Amino acid sequence: MGYLGFIFGSSLPPRNTTHDIEPDLTTLYAPKKPVTHLPKPPSVPIPMEIVMTILEAGYEDESVRSYNALLQNCALVCKDWSAIAQKLLFRNVTLSTQTAYIAFQQAVDRATPKGRMLGDAVVRMSVVLDQKQPYRLSHKSFARAVSLCPNLYELSVSLYGAGAPGLDIIGSPDASRMKRSAPSFDERTLATLRSGPRISALQFCNWTDNSSSLLQLLDVWPSLTSLDISGTTPELLDDTAEPFPCALRELRTNFQSPPSVEFMQWLLHNSAGSLRVLDLAREPSPDTLEYLVSEHGETLQSLALPACGTHEGAAAVRRCAGLRELSIESAWASPLLYKTPPSGLQHLAFGVDGDTALSPVISAIKRSDELRAVTMHVWHGGERHPQLAAVKIACAVKGVKLRLAKDISAFRSLNRGDPVPTTTYPRTRSLDNLLYMASRAATTS
Questions:
Q1: pLDDT tops 60 at residue 2
Q2: Could you tell me if 250 and 227 are in contact, meaning their C-beta atoms sit under 8 angstroms apart?
Q3: pLDDT of the residue at 316
């Protein structure tokens, strides 16, 4: 730019100047204190007593199948829970095949501490002997499994036979299915059973034409106090046979046809004074009912009948003055039955359909001071019965628990508890009963 350029301007283009600028958008904070990592506190495991109490509490509200499923899941939680869950799981064991027996035998091996613990935990065992299964549980394995459980209290045996070749037709009538043969227990099997635990409760379901199997098992355990037999109607092979030696506390029967009076006399010969519970799923003949009431009516506390529609039957039931529980499955019963209920009646169970006469029942509820529960099997329009609300009101006024069932299986399940002694009705399935069975088996083995 010349000397006079200031006045006249310059002819040269303006010069561009470049500046390097780097923006800094970082926000400045106050300096932080250094982070120190504290050591983790040691984990405190849940005491095993509390874990067992929690798992046992599930037994009160669940069925055996649901409870076992719960325990199987708990066994996968951790190693400590696994031992407890397995012990509780082995309280109820079911064996139906030879494969299941082999696994069970390995689990309860008496040569190992864990095996002895699991074997001692078994209180209930259910066994299926089916001649049609290709890998069925053998009689020898059945006896061996029982002998491995020194604290066994209740045993359930279901026996199924095999039809003749070409005659075993699926869907055949019940009478044809009953004609299935099954071998009797040999002496070696019976000897193994006798060397095992002294069980107190036996359930035997026989779907074969073999009548001797029941008599064989009854001869094994003179310690029985509870007996539940169903299926083929048993027959005495010898009229001169010695009476059944056990003094039964409870008896349940559910045969295809009512047994003879002679068989009931043989079975209950030594139960006079000890029989407390009698449950007959099939209506007995008048002669059989007369024998049962005359010989055992004074000591009976619980009586269950499929029906009681005649005045003679109602008069016979009323002779059982000490009843604390009465169950009539049929929706029709003689009004005479409820006219004067036993003074100590605690549980009343009956069926209700659309035509059931409920007025005598309502009067009986109002007059029973000791009544604790009423169980109704509501079916065939019973839910629309005009007096059903009156029954509910009568129970509410007396402070009586009302239980409703929609099918006969649920009705029977509500009325049947564990096979243990009791003075209160209705009986229940509870953890206390299970613990009693375990302790009782341990003291009698």
A1: no
A2: yes
A3: 95
